[in-house]
Amino acid sequence: MAIVKELKAFMMRGNVVDMAVGVIVGGAFGQIVNSLVNDVIMPPIGVLLNGVNFTDLKLVIKEASVDAAGTVIPAVSLNYGNFIQMVINFIIISTAIFFVIRGMNSLQNKKDEVPAAPPAPSKEEVLLAEIRDLLKEKK
Question: Is 0.70 topped by the overall pTM?
């Protein structure tokens, strides 16, 4: 029973809950970034590259064949095009996230730059200031 209480205390800690929220929000943000890359950024890049699809690039080491029993033996290949595509995706995603974070930081800095108005003095402070001023006049 002590282990169950300890586990419950661990799971209810603030940092565990914060981490869980971060993972969930991070997953949703990842989907947004993937959509940005796949649906917005990659089509124009594909047009600029005349429709070259890097994922199709490969070096075939051994061609596919059929053995005597009729079993298909798949080809062995180095799929370097997929690696190139993943590097390009990484660069695009990193750049997109850089600009998103940069924009968020600039918005945060603008919020920080606005000085807070000093609070209005309370009624007691106003009365005390009036009394002080009256006492100064009597001297």
Answer: no
- Vertex 50 angle, CA 49 and 52, to 5°: 70
Give the pLDDT of the chain (139 residues) as one tens digit per residue.
888 888 877 777 767 777 888 889 888 888 887 888 778 877 887 788 777 777 888 899 999 889 888 899 999 999 898 888 888 878 877 887 788 888 888 887 776 666 777 888 888 888 888 888 888 888 6
SS3 of the chain: CHHHHHHHHHHCCHHHHHHHHHHHHHHHHHHHHHHHHHHHHHHHHHHHCCCCCHHHCCEEEECCEECCCCCEECCEEECHHHHHHHHHHHHHHHHHHHHHHHHHHHHHHHHHHCCCCCCCCCHHHHHHHHHHHHHHHHC
